[in-house]
């Protein structure tokens, strides 16, 4: 089963050869910027077999977890599309809103709930983590 998606304007299209490994909602401060205040729902895919058409712009920053993240977005419409840690090139995160079928991105849990505003929605029936799950502590 392949999974396809695109940015809002359609200039960037992408495809993965297999369904996501997992999906989760992230309340980290970075995601709040990128999703207009809400938690961002992100699907994690294996990079292998990833196909991209169109031109993306990139912004590199350090995440709250300490990881250096490469974030790619459409330079025409600004849709955030992909992110991956430079330490983990084998997997990448895709913003679920960019999938042609967002139903594939049902979150299995919430992360960085400690950064959510007091009105922020967290599903108490799912696994929740106040920060980065399984974070490697860095000096
Ligand atoms: Zn676009
Ligand atoms: Zn986040």
From TrEMBL:
It holds the Pfam family GFA. One of its GO terms (molecular function) is carbon-sulfur lyase activity. Keywords: Lyase, Metal-binding, Zinc. It comes from the Bacteria. The keyword Metal-binding applies. Residues 3-113 form the CENP-V/GFA domain. Belongs to the Gfa family. This is CENP-V/GFA domain-containing protein. It comes from Stella humosa.
């Amino acid at each position: 089963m392949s999974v396809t998606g695109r940015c809002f304007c359609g200039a960037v299209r992408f495809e993965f050869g297999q369904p996501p490994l997992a999906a989760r909602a992230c309340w980290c401060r970075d995601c709040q910027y990128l999703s207009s205040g809400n938690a961002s729902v992100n699907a994690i895919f294996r990079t292998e077999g990833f196909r991209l058409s169109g031109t993306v712009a990139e912004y590199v920053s350090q995440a709250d977890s300490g990881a250096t993240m490469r974030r790619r977005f459409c330079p025409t419409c600004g849709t955030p599309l992909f992110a991956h840690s430079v330490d983990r090139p084998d997997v990448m995160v895709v913003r679920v809103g960019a999938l042609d079928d967002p139903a594939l991105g049902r979150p299995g849990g919430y992360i960085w709930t400690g950064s959510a505003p007091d009105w922020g929605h967290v599903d108490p029936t799912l696994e929740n983590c106040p920060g980065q799950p399984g974070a490697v502590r860095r000096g």
